[in-house]
Amino acid sequence: MDERRWSGSGTADAGPSIPPPESFVSRANMREDPREEFDEEWPGCWERAAELLSWETEYDTVLEDDEAPFYRWFDGGKLNAAANCLDRHLEGGAKNRAALRWEGKRGESRTYTYRELAVEVEECAAALSGLGVVEDDVVTLYLPMIPELPVAMLACARIGAPHSVVFAGLSADALSTRIEAANSEYLVTCDGYYRRGDAFNQKGKVDNAVLSVGHDVRATVVVDRLGEDLPHHLGDDQYDYHDLLAAHAGESVEPVARDSRDDLFVMYTSGTTGEPKGVVHATGGYLSYVAWTARAVLDVEPGDTYWCAADIGWITGHSYIVYGPLALGTTTLLYEGTPDYPDRDRLWEIVERNAVDVFYTAPTAVRAFMKWGAEYPESHDLSSLRLLGTVGEPIDPRTWKWYYRHVGGGNCPVVDTWWQTETGGMMLTTLPGVDEMKPGAAGPPLPGIDARVVDPDGEAVDPGEAGSLTIRRPWPGMARTLYGGDDAFVEEYWSRFSDPAAGDWVYDSGDAARVDPDGYVTVLGRTDDVIDVSGRRLSTAELESAIVATEGVAEAAVVAGDGIYAYVSPEQGVDPSRGLPEVIGTNVDDAIGPVARPDRIVFTPDLPKTRSGKIMRRLLGAIARGEDLGDTSALRNPEIVGELRETIGEE
Ligand code: 6R9
């Protein structure tokens, strides 16, 4: 961010506060605000997170900062993540509780009790060890949303081999880059998977990818997902998953006691801008933090059926489908597919059939539900729900309210959780049984978190002013480093606002934000996405929020082209030629000012998105400016790019 002032500060504010429903508060995991205590006790407060886990060896200290910003949490402690997610739940009745429920793409469903999941994880761990995997070998997992993915993650964790999960939809190229960067010699994948009913050949992509990896890939394990629908041949060093597990049936594998600071996994994130970075998470701090936040924010309880409808290939799936919920001994639901196949009520049918208690998804999904119409959620009994959450992008007040009303029936708090791959777990959000909600603002920092919005000199800005979102104290979920890139880690996140000579380390999130007088933070988007109009800086999130506030608009993305370009996706059945652009213009004038009025509005049925549902503004900017688009393989819906190019070219 440069010295110039932001425009639009103090406008497009979050809506008025909504108190959490009494029915929720009376049974919430957290009913008192612990923020003050956390501040007084910091960093000792984080023992409360560590206490949620079982430690093989007690830790010596809560926080070691002698190598800052390479902090060590719960140093001296030893634990195993898989043992925390499985073994310790096997005592007593919990072993027959469902750990995982899977809803497959073709209407199949499978349930694993904790006992059954533990058995398969041990067999998989035995199989991986049998292939030669030893502690600290990175194992790449290139699997769609099938139970074998969490099984393989936990099997790796059991033997102390960090996993690197790559989104199943990424290209062969993206896969080989990640295998190479992580120096990974072992791969678990599948023959193929179904997308909208069609069989896709995953193994073909894998074979191509492996050919272009610079080192030897010693073994590839292939899950047979499609059976007769896609016969395949196993080459040298390729093994059938089910045959391998059968060969190790019933074997037990002792969990490796890992140092708290040892790596649990690496996760490559390309985000919406830039090169992929291998974010590394250590075992003790990460697992404590995701368990603590799942309990405090998602209100997860052992008896719940909890559903995070995200992909495990995204950090959200690691933290809040697999590790957090299983560490707490709850039933976590895993779903494969898309929300509109076979029909647009698929998710609500799953909620009803499984009596889901807590539902967590991305704003982009909620905007799609809003676009399709309230009749889909309303045609199902959703009364089992007690809490809703969102993650991944700002959620505008209109979408928030739609979710609160049509999915939550006005009885469920909505938590808008801001966090990043690098933070490991949630950082800014309301505590659902404690804080009032303000639609459009993520909320205050969580207990123990010192988040500040600062100007280019690192000084806190006044309420209402926009600035850079920074974090001042370390927290247990934080990334340990970037894989093979300690220098890049410091450079990327800790150089902008820190004063190393004074021992003063400040984490730069790369996001822009604004705080209100109550300390609620509204995230305004990546600082790279900010647009510059005649010397004034406009936040994309604010502009988009003003556009989406227009009746008939489902989703919008704003970028700089020749002036301000707004890509707008209308709701189902809305004809945009009937005055919509004028209403949008007026709404933007009112919310921000005429300077922010889009110069060009392009209507489109969809916007290009990453696989975690983030709008790719970088691509939309390139389309608007007629530039080369670069690599589009990380897109969930690459076809839309060509369509938009044509639309813009034709006009
Ligand atoms: C968990 C995750 C991180 C970036 C982050 C920010 C955006 C995430 C948000 C949000 C506004 C929220 N983001 N949650 N923006 N409100 N509640 O998404 O990790 O994939 O690494 O992305 O996502 O821009 O910096 P990751």
Automatic annotation (TrEMBL):
- SUPFAM superfamilies for this protein: Acetyl-CoA synthetase-like
Question: EC number(s) on record?
Answer: 6.2.1.1
- What keywords does the record list, in alphabetical order? ATP-binding, Ligase, Nucleotide-binding
Where in this protein does the record put region Disordered? 1-41
For biological process, the GO terms are: acetyl-CoA biosynthetic process from acetate; carbon fixation by 3-hydroxypropionate cycle
Which InterPro entries is this protein grouped with? Answer: Ac_CoA_lig (IPR011904), ACAS_N (IPR032387), AMP-bd_C (IPR025110), AMP-bd_C_sf (IPR045851), AMP-binding_CS (IPR020845), AMP-dep_synth/lig_dom (IPR000873), ANL_N_sf (IPR042099)
Keyword Flavoprotein found: no
Listed Pfam families: ACAS_N, AMP-binding, AMP-binding_C
**Where does the Acetyl-coenzyme A synthetase N-terminal domain start and stop, copy by copy?**
36-85
Q: Where is the AMP-binding enzyme C-terminal domain?
A: 542-614
What domain of life?
A: Archaea
Q: Does the keyword Metal-binding apply?
A: no
A molecular function annotated in GO for this UniProt entry is: ATP binding
| AMP-dependent synthetase/ligase domain span | 95-480
- Family, per entry: Belongs to the ATP-dependent AMP-binding enzyme family.
Q: In its UniProt entry, what is this protein called?
A: Acetate--CoA ligase
Instruction: Give the organism, scientific name.
Output: Saliphagus infecundisoli
Q: What is the lineage of its organism?
A: Archaea, Methanobacteriati, Methanobacteriota, Stenosarchaea group, Halobacteria
Q: Which gene encodes it?
A: acs
